[in-house]
Structures are given as C-alpha cells and as structure tokens.
Design goal:
five-stranded mixed sheet, 10 strands, Nucleotidyltransferase, domain 5, alpha/beta, 6 helices
Length: about 230
C-alpha cells in the first residue's frame, strides 16, 4: 500500500510517503513551525512526492492528522488531504493526533501505560491514557491540568509524550510514582502517521477536525446588531 501522510496539527508541517511493499517510508520531510502551514504545505508535499517518484494517482490513500491541535493548522492539513484525495480519486483517512503520539511508545512496549498529552492552553490539556495492550483507559478529552494529572497518575507510572508532557511532569503529585519517561514533542513522528494511515480502516467518510473544545476566539454578542 502507498500512503501519503500529512500533519499540520501542531508545531510542524510534515509529509511522508509510505510504500509497504517496497521498503516502508520512501520519502519524508518535516519543518518545525507554529504558523505558516498554509504557505508551506503544498510545496513540501510536492517535494516529498517528487522524491518518492510517484504520481498522486499511484497512491492508495491519503492520511492526515485531524486533531486535537491548532484550529488553523488542522484546517490546512485536512483541506489539502481532501483536495488531493478528490483529485486523485483516492480515499482519505483521518487520524487522532493523540493516537499518533502514543503509537510508537505502544509499539516499543505495550505492557506499560502511555499518556498522550497536548497543551490546550489556559491551564488545560488534551489527553488520552492507554493501558497494557494499547487499550484506552481514558478516552480523548480536554481537561484542566490538575484533572489531567490525576487521570494520568491513576494509570501507574506512565510514559508521557506530547506538547504537554513537561506540563504534566512538572505538576506530578509527590505521593504518586513518577512517570517512567517524559518526551516533550512538538509534533508526532510523520513516519508513524503514515504507518497508522496504512492500518486505519477506510470508513468512506472524509476527514473532519477533532477539536474537543470550542475555539478561543468567540464572536462578541454585544457586537451583534439587534433585528428590527
């Protein structure tokens, strides 16, 4: 299977091409950035596809991270994935950003718990907690930092990964077993996004953002004009 993977959910603009029958990842590129994904993404995808040596029609599917993450970044990546899928006549699949963070750790050792955590700002965290075998113990949610720490600590001595890994570690209760590892990462590994994309079921539904919370910027009700 040939998969084009795209990630613009957080602090990187990334793409990779996976060919499961001929050597795995054949091309990838990742640029660290917090803004500017819209301008950087399509040229980056073109470079990756050129290095892979494939036409878009030779792909089997397009995979993209759908959140949680940056509202603007998510829209950029999902729009690109849906546009390429439509033009190439191929399916597009959406992947949870939390799952793409956790999967490499679960693959390395599925006997130990994993906490995937993303900074949601304003003292809140997006998180998902995985137990042995990769089983979900706490479903994806947004929670205040203290509540997130309690949920993570209840899993034992987990491995923590994501943009909020250091936040959780710094707030860890002194009376709980310390995390086994803390991996602060600004974005998931794009190679793993591609591998998850190959394994994900094709639901036939176009990817849509997984926000988990409302946007920070809300229209001001006072600015609305009253109807006459």
């Amino acid at each position: 299977m040939r998969v084009l993977a795209i990630d613009t959910a957080l602090e990187a603009c990334s793409a990779a091409v996976l060919d499961t029958e001929h050597g795995g990842i054949v091309a990838h590129e990742s640029l660290t950035m917090q803004r500017g994904h819209a301008e950087a993404l399509m040229p980056l995808i073109k470079r990756v596809m050129d290095r892979a040596g494939f036409a878009y029609t030779a792909l089997d599917r397009i995979a993209v991270t759908i959140g949680p993450g940056s509202f603007t970044g998510l829209r950029v990546g999902i729009a690109a994935a849906r546009g390429i899928a439509l033009a190439a006549g191929k399916p597009a699949v959406g992947l949870s950003t939390l799952a793409t963070y956790a999967t490499p750790l679960i693959a390395a050792d599925d006997t130990l718990p994993v906490v995937a955590a993303i900074d949601a700002r304003h003292d809140h965290v997006y998180l998902q907690v995985y137990g042995p075998g990769g089983r979900t113990l706490v479903a994806p949610r947004v929670a205040p930092l203290r509540e997130a720490v309690r949920a993570a600590a209840n899993s034992g001595a987990p491995r923590i990964v994501g943009t909020a890994a250091n936040l959780l570690a710094a707030a860890w209760p002194l009376d709980e077993r310390s995390p086994r590892s803390v991996e602060q990462r600004g974005a998931p590994d794009i190679d793993w996004v591609a591998q998850l994309g190959a394994a994900a079921p094709d639901t036939g539904v176009s990817p849509r953002p997984l926000y988990l919370k409302a946007p920070d910027a809300q229209p001001q009700e006072a600015s609305h004009l009253a109807r006459r």
